Amino acid sequence: MIANEDTIKETASNWDLPIEAISEAIEYCETHQELLQLEAEAECDYLEDRGVVLEPKATHR
Fold this sequence. Notes:
Layout: H1 5-15, H2 19-31, H3 33-49
Helix pairs in contact: 1-2
C-alpha cells in the first residue's frame, strides 16, 4: 500500500516531522515487511514467555 501525498503531509504535520521522514518510514515498512513480521513475532514470544497475556480473554459466551 502506497500512502498518498495528502496522507503523508497530514501525518508529517500531526507528528511535527519532515515529510521526507514519513516517506522514508513508509518505504522502509513496505520493503521490509518480512523482517518486521519476524521481529513482531519474536517480541510476542518474548512477552508470552514472561507471562504477559497479549490476547484478551473472553468474559462471556
